[in-house]
Amino acid sequence: MKLTRRGVLAAMAASVATGPVLAAPPHVVKIPRDWLPSVVPVNPELAAGEIHVRIAQNRLYWTLGDGKAIRYVVALGAAGRNFSGTARVARKAEWPSWTPTANMIKAEPAVYGPYARGLPGGHARNPLGARALYLYRDGRDTYYRIHGTPQPWTMGRQFSSGCVRLINEHVEDLYERVPVGTTVVVA
Length: 187
Fold this sequence. Notes:
With 187 residues, the protein is α/β, with parallel strands linked by helices. It is 18% helix and 33% strand. The protein contains four helices and eleven strands; from the N terminus they run αββββββααββββαβ. The protein has helices at 5-17, 102-107, 109-112, 168-177; strands at 38-41, 51-54, 59-65, 68-73, 76-77, 85-94, 131-137, 140-149, 158-160, 164-167, 183-186. A hairpin with a 4-residue loop joins strand 2 and strand 3. The protein is globular, with a radius of gyration of 16 Å. The two termini are 28 Å apart. 35% of the residues are buried. The model is unreliable at 5-21 (pLDDT under 50).
């Protein structure tokens, strides 16, 4: 998949037109050039084929080897809500369904309670967006995901309930690159 500024803008305008997820009113977002996925230098000791999320930078890196990675701008959770450590991608889904966790409903019943029975994939209010990578540790679901979002304006911010969010077109690109079993390091 070739990512272009025009394609990203068109996708964002279309996704905003369908309605935002659980939050701010819809608005058109001009995607800054530096938000587009780009190949950047990284520590040459990082193995190819891994995902590294840097919480302090709001960036995700898909390592290519030879000291290079594709960098994506992401939205993360507020302090204390993010997954940290090492996990593996145990499952992948296109247009995944979503159900808020019991902890999410307990913490913010007005926000998540109405969705306690879940939302189907592709629903305008489903926060998982176009694709999801499911993170497991020691064979158990962490309930954290790397996923898309129909809220591109949240990139670069602490906005989610702890998952790693990407612009839908960007998560589609990452999804095609990442096989099940991929190591994910979040720090």
